[in-house]
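Usage example:
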Amino acid sequence: MQMNISARNALKGKVVNVNVGVVNTEVVIELPGGDNIVSVISKESASKLGLVPGKPCYAVIKASHVMVAVD
Amino acid sequence: MQMNISARNALKGKVVNVNVGVVNTEVVIELPGGDNIVSVISKESASKLGLVPGKPCYAVIKASHVMVAVD
Amino acid sequence: MQMNISARNALKGKVVNVNVGVVNTEVVIELPGGDNIVSVISKESASKLGLVPGKPCYAVIKASHVMVAVD
Amino acid sequence: MQMNISARNALKGKVVNVNVGVVNTEVVIELPGGDNIVSVISKESASKLGLVPGKPCYAVIKASHVMVAVD
Amino acid sequence: MQMNISARNALKGKVVNVNVGVVNTEVVIELPGGDNIVSVISKESASKLGLVPGKPCYAVIKASHVMVAVD
Amino acid sequence: MQMNISARNALKGKVVNVNVGVVNTEVVIELPGGDNIVSVISKESASKLGLVPGKPCYAVIKASHVMVAVD
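Running the assembly step on the lines above writes:
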């Protein structure tokens, strides 16, 4: 289902790896700058969205779930 | 306190905006590729870390808090 | 931006109350069955989505953020 | 242990499906209006609470973990 | 409402500080060993639970929201 | 990578149990007062940090992920 979501962060990238577990699936997304973002979502969601290496996608993160660190 | 944390995602960037509330503070971080990441942390943390525009920092996100979306 | 998201839960309802803070905004959503769901999102997101009482919307929740309780 | 919790959302329903993994278990809860809510909790919690299809339960969600979306 | 919740962590302590914002309230809980835990919950929840300094309470945390760090 | 993080809570303890799944690993941390904290992190993070029983570590939790309960 297509929708506009309140999550402040939607970083465009592409899937580079998928590791399927019993309940959850780990998806690695490469951003254009070369950084990777790792996501753990349910196996069913990963399957429904057709997440396979090479597929363009977004890493979506609610602002209250982002921490900040300094050296 | 310096530590190595289990969070899979630590994206390097710099602070570009800080909006201070009563309990929480919103911090906007610019990544090298030009993307912005918005974070909401407690006001005290933002103050302790000395987050002001221009300061280098990391956006840190636990993998289980990252969703994936497709067009 | 329209997208299909991995979050397993998207409950259809309508906005019945909005309480705006400095950084965050609290949005109350009424489900068809009469239950209310309370959401806290950033003030800017609430504003961008045009969330005002009466507006149809979805409460979206990642499955790993839902707990279960029994009496 | 019985307690009153700060989480703003406790939606009454009943378990309709349980999928057990190595670490986590996925629990599907049906609300009276017919909507389903999917939860991923630890296997041990699901076991301790005796979550089996048909059991009355609540889906409990902290307000800051609820996003809002519009069409 | 009294309930048994799936969250794996419920640390017993007492409220030692409360800082009220527009939408959220910050609650500081002291554990018996002397450690403090900081919680940010909605203002309404803090009010409903009657959280004032000295009140016995629990810090409740879903296991998937706990990270691990090493020196 | 060593860093100072915005998460308000870093409770010192030691690993007492590790349960490895396909995607996630459950880590049990004992605090000095005798309380246990359960964490679910990705298998790769647990491996990288060398989390084995007896290892000193911190349970790190963002304040907005801590709920409060009363009897």
